[in-house]
Design a protein that fits this description.
alpha+beta, Lipocalin, 8-stranded antiparallel β-barrel, 22% helix
Length: 146
């Protein structure tokens, strides 16, 4: 009887541990995403061929408690690029919903599905879009500042 009780307790313990680890893994990616990020590389691909590489672009993103804000250096043309909104993470896809944005962004969509790869110190975002029946990708690489 003692062996039966021990096996039952062991099964309950292992099941509880599995549920705990599973829940923590779901939150783990969100936790890794939260923080302040600085862009280090930007690539634009046209039909999988790199047509632009820019390591000088200055852009920051902050993710916290389901909210995001980002800004980008105005650059030579002095056009402001910034936005605020919410985000939701579903598996490896980040959905950014922008509710307030600079004038140049207002002509675009306000909801962006972004494929991400995130670790403790790096973030890769891939935005896929189509223009005139041509497939494009913007790939942004970030390092974590905090």
């Amino acid at each position: 009887m003692n062996k039966l009780i021990f096996n039952a307790i062991k099964t309950v313990f292992l099941s509880s541990l599995l549920v705990f680890v599973s829940c923590n893994n779901k939150e783990g990616k969100k936790d890794k995403l939260e923080g302040v990020w600085e862009q280090t590389n930007f690539f634009r691909l046209k039909e999988k061929d790199t047509i632009l590489k820019d390591n000088s672009k200055i852009q920051h993103k902050i993710y916290l408690d389901g909210f995001l804000i980002w800004n980008s250096d105005a650059g030579k043309d002095s056009v402001e690029w910034h936005a605020y909104g919410t985000y939701n993470l579903k598996k490896d896809t980040l959905i950014e919903t922008l509710t307030s944005m600079s004038i140049p962004l207002q002509g675009y969509n306000s909801i962006y599905p972004i494929v991400i790869e995130v670790s403790d110190s790096s973030l890769k975002q891939t935005i896929n879009y189509k223009e005139n029946d041509i497939n494009y990708q913007n790939i942004e690489i970030y390092k974590k500042l905090n």
